[in-house]
Design a protein that fits this description.
Helix content: 40-55%
Number of helices: 12
Radius of gyration: 20 Å
Strand content: 5-15%
Shape: globular
Oligomer: single chain
Distance between the termini: 17 Å
CATH topology of the largest domain: Rossmann fold
Number of domains: 2
Largest sheet: 6 strands, parallel
C-alpha cells in the first residue's frame, strides 16, 4: 500500500560513481515505492558482459520481492549502442512502467545517458558516413582527437581512447549542433534525483576492492568466453575491464600490468563521473547527495524524507 505522505515523482533517479552502491539502493527503493528500474549504464545493455559491467543482478532480489529491470541484456556483445538508441529505448520502458502504475527509477553511472533523460534530449540518429571514414583513414588518433576538439569540449573522454569510438564521435559532432531539450518530455515531469558519494579515499578503496573481488569471481573467464564470439578489437571498444582483460587474455600484458592499469583507469573513470554529475548541477539539475558511508536504511530514509509532502 502506498504511503499517502509521500509525493511520488514521475521519475526517480539514483546516480553516482562506480562502486557506490547505486543498484542496491535503487532496488530497495523500488520495493518501497512500487517501482521498476531502468538502467542508465552504457555497457549493461550487453548480454554476457555481466561481471565486468557490474550488473549485480542479485541486488534485484529483495527478500521475496524480485524487482523488475529494463535496458539490461538487450543487445549481443559486439554490437554498438548509441545515445540515440538509449533515449529511444528509455522512453519505451518509461511508458511501459507508467502504464502499469509503477514508478520508473533510473539507475546508473553513465552521465550522458542520465542527463539526456532528465533534460529530455530530442536526438536524431546519425548514420555511418563511409565517405568521411575513407577520407580520414590515414590520420592518426592524435589527429582525430584534435579534430574532435575543434567541435567543442569533449563530452566523453573515453571516446579518444579507442579509434572506433573516436571516429564515431567525429561523425556525430559533424552532423550538427548539440542535442536540444525535447518539447514534450522530461521538462514536464516531476523528477527527484539522488546521488551517492564517498570521500575520495573511501572511493579509491572500494574501487580497488571491487576489482579484486570481480577478478576472483570469474571476470577473466567471462572475457575468455566473450572472445570466442567477439573480435578482440570489438570487445576492447567497450573500454575499462574489457580493454585491459582482453590485452591480458591475448598475452599482450602481464597480470600485474593488467591489474594496475585497470585499477588506475577505473579510478580516473570514477573521477570523470563525479565531474560530469557536478556539471549537471551547474546546468540546472538538482541532485540530493547522500553520504555513501550511511547504512542502507539510513540512505532509504534520506530519500523518503525528501519525498515527503
Amino acid at each position: 500500500m502506498k504511503n499517502p505522505d509521500i509525493c511520488v515523482p514521475d521519475l526517480l533517479a539514483i546516480i553516482g560513481h562506480t562502486a557506490g552502491g547505486k543498484t542496491e539502493l535503487a532496488a530497495n527503493l523500488a520495493v518501497r515505492l512500487h517501482g521498476e528500474i531502468i538502467s542508465a549504464d552504457s555497457r549493461q545493455v550487453y548480454r554476457g558482459m555481466d561481471i565486468g559491467t557490474g550488473k549485480d543482478l542479485l541486488d534485484y532480489q529483495i527478500g521475496d520481492n524480485r524487482v523488475n529491470y529494463h535496458l539490461i541484456d538487450i543487445k549481443d556483445a559486439g554490437e554498438k549502442y548509441s545515445l540515440f538508441d538509449f533515449t529511444t529505448d528509455f522512453h519505451q520502458a518509461y511508458q511501459n512502467i507508467r502504464c502499469r502504475g509503477k514508478l520508473p527509477i533510473l539507475c546508473g553511472g553513465t552521465g550522458l545517458y542520465t542527463e539526456a533523460t532528465l533534460k529530455g534530449y530530442n536526438l536524431v540518429e546519425v548514420p555511418v558516413d563511409d565517405v568521411f571514414r575513407r577520407s580520414i583513414a590515414s590520420l592518426t588518433d592524435d589527429d582525430l582527437t584534435e579534430m574532435l576538439k575543434s567541435f567543442g569540449s569533449l563530452h566523453n573522454r573515453s571516446d579518444t581512447t579507442n579509434r572506433d569510438r573516436l571516429i564515431r564521435a567525429l561523425e556525430i559532432a559533424r552532423s550538427g549542433p548539440e542535442p536540444k531539450p525535447a518539447v514534450n518530455h522530461s521538462h514536464q515531469w516531476k523528477t527527484a534525483v539522488f546521488g551517492i558519494q564517498f570521500d575520495k579515499e573511501t572511493r579509491r578503496k572500494r574501487i580497488t576492492q571491487r576489482l579484486s573481488d570481480r577478478l576472483e569471481s570469474g571476470m577473466i573467464d567471462e572475457v575468455k568466453r566473450l572472445l570466442t564470439s567477439v573480435k578482440p578489437e570489438d570487445l576492447m571498444y567497450y573500454g575499462l575491464e574489457y580493454k585491459y582483460l582482453t590485452l591480458y587474455c591475448l598475452g599482450d600484458i602481464s597480470y600485474d600490468q593488467m591489474f594496475n592499469s585497470l585499477n588506475i583507469a577505473i579510478h580516473q573513470f570514477a573521477k570523470r563521473q563525479m565531474t560530469w554529475f557536478r556539471g549537471m548541477e551547474r546546468r540546472g539539475i538538482n541532485i540530493t547527495w547522500i553520504p555513501g558511508e550511511l547504512q542502507l536504511e539510513e540512505k532509504i530514509a534520506v530519500v523518503m524524507k525528501s519525498l515527503e509532502k
